[in-house]
User: What shape does this take?
Amino acid sequence: MDNKDRAMAKVLAIVAAVLAVVVFWTRSLSSQGLEALAQASLPLDEALGNDKPTLVEFYADWCEACHQMEPTMAHLKQTHRGALDLVLLNVENPLWEQELDQFQVRGIPTVLFYGPDGSVRGRSIGLRQPEQLEAMVAALLRDNPLPHLNLQGATSAVSDANPSQSSAVGPRSHGEELA
Assistant: This one.
C-alpha cells in the first residue's frame, strides 16, 4: 500500500468512527427523550394541586406512538412553561400501578387533561398529531372544551409490556431501588 492509499484508509476509518458515534448518540437521545421528560416532571399530586392545567401522559419506552409524540410534548412543555404542568408516567414502572388502575389505562399513549382545579377535562388515547395536541392544550389553557377527543389514534396495549424487561428502577423513582 502506498502513502496515498494509507491516507485514504485513515480518512475512511475516521469517517466511519464519526458516523458510528453520531448514530449511537442519536439513538441514545431518542430513547432518553421520554425518560428525561418524565424525570423533569412534577410529582402527579403536586401538579394536580398547584392551580395550573396539567397534562398527564402514560407512556412506555417500547411504544412507537409515544416516541412519535415526544417532540411535541417537549415543545408544549417549553412553550407553556409556567402555565402548564406536564407529567409523564411510565407504565412499566411498578410505582404507577395504582394510577394505571385508577385511570383505567388500557392503551398507550393515554393523555389526561386536567383543569387548574385538578378536575379531569378530557382523555386522549393513541397517537395524536402535533396540531391536535397543540389545539387541545390551547383549549385547556383557555378553559374551553377540548377538540379531537372523539378521535383515537394508534395505540399499544399496556398488556404488551414484557415484565421481564421492566426495570426495578424507573424514571420517576429517582434512582431508588424498588422493593
User: Anything to note?
Assistant: The chain has a mean pLDDT of 82.
